[in-house]
Amino acid sequence: MKFWFPWVSLIARLVLGGVMLVAGALKVTDPETAAQAVRAYDLLPSALVAPIGWGLPFLEIAIGLLLVVGFGVRATAAAAGVFMIVFIAAVSSAWARGLSIDCGCFGGGGQVAPGQTKYLQEILRDIGLLVLAGWLWLNPVSKFAVVSEPQGVTAS
After folding, report:
1. Chain segment 45-80, per-residue pLDDT in tens
2. Where does it reside (predicted)?
């Protein structure tokens, strides 16, 4: 392992964890709007919209906190990566189907005027976050982590 890998992993942890934490915190205070954002994608059966809209912010906060403190980095990076893949797929689907919605990524969500969508920027942002999750999955050892080195991983 290169000497700078743990520093890059620290930055990746703080950026990815910070984004997940902020996204969840902005939604957790208004669960009905979070459910509305999930509903706007028109991808899930109505019975799943409320539980996902209400539960998603708590999962984002949990993943964000674990990444920021550096506990279970490989597993939480994998979870964050799965979230990013789902978010990329959902936004891409909305875009392909011609929906005009706000992604609801940082609160809000629902219908917007056709010229107000930002699908490309949202997808590119989430691809960048997916890259960070991939880096952390491959390089979970980082500076200032609660658990600085996962079992079975040794620094070279």
Report:
1. 999 999 999 999 999 999 999 999 999 999 999 999
2. Membrane
> Using one digit for the tens of pLDDT, what is the confidence trace for 70-107?
999 999 999 999 999 999 999 999 999 999 999 999 99
Q: What are the sequence ranges of the domains in the chain?
A: 5-135
Task: Count other C-beta atoms under 10 Å from residue 153's C-beta.
Answer: 11
Per-residue pLDDT tens over the stretch 119-142? 999 999 999 999 999 999 999 999
Q: By CB neighbour count within 10 A (0-12 exposed, 13-18 middle, 19+ buried), where does 143 fall?
A: middle
Neighbours of 156 (CB within 10 A): 6
**Calpha distance 61→55 (Å, rounded):** 10
SS3 content of the chain, % helix, strand, coil (to 5): 65, 5, 30
Reported in sequence order, the residue ranges of 93-152 that DSSP labels E, i.e. its strands, are: 101-102, 110-111
